Amino acid sequence: MRALTTYAGATLPALLVLGFFVWFANWIPQTRWEPPKIRQINAGASPDELAVLGQAIVRERGCMACHTIEPGAGIEGRGRGPNLDGLAARRANGVEGGAASLVAYLTESLYTPGAWLVEGYANIMPSSIKAPAKLSREEVAAVVAYLESLGGTPSVTLATLPAPPDASAAAAAAAPAEAVPAEPGAMLEAFDCLGCHSQEPGEVLVGPPFEAAILRAAAQAQGIDPVTYVMRSIVDPRAFESADFPAETMPDDYGARLNAAQLFAITDYLITREGGQ
Amino acid sequence: MGHTTEKDRGGKPAVVVVALVALLITATGPALAQTAPIRDYAEPALIDSRLAVWIAAQLHLDFAAFVLAVPMFALAIEVFGWSRARRDPAAAARYDWMAHEMARLLPAAYSLTAISGAFLGMLLFSAYPRLMAYITETFGPTFAIYPLFFVAETICLYFWYYAWNRLQGDRKWAHIALGFLLNVFGTIVMFIANAWATFMMTPGGVDEAGALVSLYDAVWNPGWMPLNVHRLIANITFGALLCAAYAAYRFLSAQTAAERALYDWMGYTGNLIALFTMLFLPFAGYYFGFELFAYSATYGVTLMGGVLSWLFIIQAIVIAILFIGAAYYAWLGLLRIPGSEPQRRLVPVFNVALIAGFMVWATPHSMAASIEESTGQFHPLLGALGLMAPKMIAVTLILVVLYVGYLLYRRAGKVPVVPWAKSGTQIEWGLIALMAVAIFGLGIYGYFAPADVRIRTSIWQILVLIGGITITFVLDLLLLRGAETRASVRWGSMPRRGQYILILLAFVIVWLMGLMGYARSGARLNWHVFGLVQDTSAGAGLPTLGEAAIVVTAITLIFFALLGIAFAISALAGRDTLPEFGDEAREAAA
């Protein structure tokens, strides 16, 4: 018993110090970190809507741990990364020898941050489509829209967001969309596209058949590339309506129902498949 | 000596548990990997899975650290004693006694390591079936060989401990060989487990989808070797402080002056080993952090500028208590040495220097409490002191101060007799001053330099420190060769508060180990395997630091409660005959 009392007494200072640690740890600011929210961003979201979402994403995913937004500080703020204030004005024309527009520059910088490293800063930023930020394509568009708003006006949409620079980045960008079926053909079935659009050569149901050659020709007639043509036709079916098919028949809510990964998967499938394949 | 009774008590449970672990890992893993479909997570249970795994993992780590570390320095002490056996049998007997006494807690602690490991394995496989199936599939061969080394370590440990008194004299070499093998197997076991742990932080050897490409690269992933180095050093600090605390308890309950003297010496030795390894710990931690940062800058941001940044403020305070406490104990030791008054006068100066250094170390980079609040800016009031360069200066100079304190301790009660003593002493202190100035100058240069240059200058600071310590220590050895001893160390005369400090340090190191275990795991945020296997469970977030501190404290208390039981079991065993004390112990210990 005497030994036990001796041990307990000798342990008391240690217990007091542990108590101090617990008190201090509870005294400092408390934050319960939660994983980033999965945001449902409609494919038809406007640039302004995207910018609002982008601001939240930038805060949540830790971008501001390095970057600063310091009005009037120029490119060199007091952070580890460049000051973002006025970014849109500084890079209105992209970067010399590379991306020719602000949106292209921002997108590339998010996918491969080391591509256009600002002088004086270390190449420490991880690709935003990889861990831990792991932005989806919709989220990249939202962040680009927000960054455009810092010294400019948001203009980017999901349809106009440049594609990732390489296949692996594209795969990574598409990966987080958990609901994307592996087979785009099944996706067309799921979204009821095949009730009106035939996949058989020469067969016309209600709308234009899903043949790459026909879609490419239609895009050429509009003077735009096939990707943009198909995407916009899905998101905004009234944009390129043809007199050969019934007007205002296709539902106009696909922009809200599809996420960006699904939109890209379907577009890619349609412009590469030939009739009957 | 009572060893036959101990054998039955400690050995059998451990063997049973080892067999269970082996069966669990080798049989359950592949089976899970082959069975489809596999659930991602277990059904919600009474206790949160993550919390249960956290407690089990940390307890296992604590016990494993202890049983891995103690044989390392106990063997070194045993070898040191053996090397003096012919010249000085009395001193050899004392060292042998101390090594054996340090190993006394091992059998019971080893059983607790195995039990907590088995418990952890069962929890992991039942709570995270898909993750464990993936880990098992990736690391299959290592899961097969791990139990083999574990069994080999078990056999060596029990033989090493229980055959201690039989393998004496001419057969001592066999005992030392057994101890060497024990350390080899123990280190391999730790390295294998580290491969799994670091793969989750810095996965390598797999493609983007997580499929195994190279097992070699998966094992030797970027974080593996830094963690191996860090854990090796930290384990020794950990084990040495626990042995010192054990000695402190024994000191306090000692019935005779001889017993008190021996446990005083043992506590001093434990603290000295801990202080010595603590000199290298900040750099080992820095090396680990550097590799994490190189793997993904996100780790740097999460740990230092984001959600866990305040954790490092707590860490700085805890380490400050550890360093200052260990130094305080060492300085209290001057009271054992008659004629050490000149050295004692400098203690307040050292304390002020250490506290000032830790104030810089504990300065937050920014005041952000969360990742959303992070602004990338520096501390609003203390500004630049929260940056890496000033912190590196502070940490390195703290180590210089501790080293200088140790040099003064060596001098206490001694008079150098070499003819060049005066000039030698001046050169020695001149070199130390030069070392401090160089460390300071490099830090200032690094502050104004770009980040990549700054990192290089910090490495130079470390090299200057290690070089300076090596040169001046050799010089000090030569200076004190044949030095005249004014008075012998009065072992056993240490004040009781010195023992309280040793016990406190043991609690603090266990708490610190728990805190850093949480930091290492929490830095992955919502990833089981960073970038590959996302944690989509309900408990994927992180608790507040206040909550984490409560859990860490609970783990610490459970650990000491279990260790107390091990302590009580070892106390039931017969005690070795106490060796006699002489002046030589002071020499060797210093």
Can you tell me about this structure?
The complex is a heterodimer of chains A (277) and B (590). The longest helix of chain A has 26 residues, at 2-27. Chain A has helices at residues 2-27, 47-60, 87-90, 102-111, 137-149, 167-174, 184-190, 212-222, 226-235, 254-257, 260-272. Chain A is elongated, with a radius of gyration of 26 Å. Chain A is mostly helical and 277 residues long. With 590 residues, chain B is mainly alpha-helical. Chain B is built from 21 helices and four strands. Chain B has helices spanning 3-34, 49-83, 89-102, 106-127, 129-138, 140-162, 172-201, 215-219, 224-252, 257-278, 281-295, 297-305, 309-332, 341-344, 347-361, 388-411, 421-448, 451-479, 496-522, 545-572, 584-589, and strands spanning 414-415, 484-485, 527-529, 533-534. A two-stranded antiparallel ribbon of chain B has the order 1-2. Chain B has a two-stranded antiparallel ribbon with strand order 3-4. In chain B, a hairpin with a 3-residue loop joins strand 3 (527-529) and strand 4 (533-534). The longest helix of chain B is centred in the first third of the chain and has 35 residues, at 49-83. Chain B starts with a helix and ends with a helix. Classes of the chains: A mainly alpha (277), B mainly alpha (590). Chains A and B meet through helix 1 and helix 6 of A and helix 9, helix 12, helix 13, helix 19 and helix 20 of B.
